[in-house]
Known about the structure:
The chain has 327 residues and is α/β, with parallel strands linked by helices. It has one domain: Alpha/Beta hydrolase fold, catalytic domain (Rossmann fold, 3-Layer(aba) Sandwich), CATH 3.40.50.1820. Helix content is 37%, strand content 17%. The chain contains eleven helices and nine strands. The protein has helices at 2-15, 38-41, 109-122, 154-178, 190-199, 217-223, 228-236, 241-248, 278-287, 302-305, 307-321, and strands spanning 50-55, 61-69, 81-89, 96-100, 125-129, 183-188, 207-211, 265-270, 292-296. Strands 1-2-3-5-4-6-7-8-9 form a nine-stranded mixed beta sheet, sandwiched between helices. α6 (217-223) runs antiparallel to α8. The radius of gyration is 19 Å and the shape is globular. InterPro entries: AB_hydrolase_fold (IPR029058), ABHD18 (IPR019149).
Amino acid sequence: MFVTKYVDKLALYDLHKKRSKVTQYVSFKHEAMKHEERENFYNTYAANPQFNIKPNEDRTYSSGNFNFRSSISLGDKNNDMVSGEVYLNSNENAPNIIFVHGWRMDSNDRIKNIFHKDMLNLGWNMYYFTLPYHFEREPKESTYSGEFMISANIERTVAASRQAVADLRALIQWIKTNKSGPVILIGVSLGGFITNLTATLESDIDVLVSVFYANRLSYSIWNTNPGMYIKKDLIQNEVTYDVLKEKWEITEPSISKPKMEKDNILLISAKHDQYVHMEDTSYLWESWEKPKRLVYNCGHSGIVLNRKRISKDTISFIRSKIFRYEY
Length: 327
């Protein structure tokens, strides 16, 4: 336990070396969205992804990139183009895994280090989805990857969450229409928050695995170390916790039930996580009527230190749920 907490603290120290150079706060322009408006709010439109891929030497896989224009424009040309990496097996019936990375990640390397080799050996299709304002979607004026997705700009944070869900739903629906195998979502950290939120709105998901996920953004910003400078920015602009909760409630996965089978959901949490607290992750688990959950005796650094266990548990769960499919 001491080691995991120490490693988390070192990672947090490194995280805060990069922070917003200027206030991100902008005054509210709109009323908070109501719960009954969420279906329309997170609506999506058909996507037409363009693939730039090449076959490998033995032609069992083709790999490269995909992109499509977001159905929701937030005014930045880089961000409004959805992009990602893709690895497609020659077997048309292969399962389709969509990975969603965490906040402030600079690449998919951490996600790949957990899952990629094992799933490549299984012959599964893999799509690495890029969240708004991250990687190549990061605006030029941004200080770090993901700065504009979660910040003291309350309404932009809601809009970015909306865009992430709409874009992810568009990709899911395209795969369902154009591929034969099941669709599996795997989200890590903030990616888990987005996949969980998507599961409450999208019925075309066969399996969901959420690893070290966040739940209520307001809770994370107000009560955890990673949110400390965003919280400071909000307080300096006289935003209270109650106001933040009201404004960001529309983004909470725990306010609605998933539109997929509960038995096909696996939640993985870290007992000593200093990025996303057990109090908040348990809140979602209970709100969703307790789907299968694994609690590791580690911190958020388990993404690195426990990557083999995460991969093993995830693949075992997925295989137990898709055995009825041929691939």
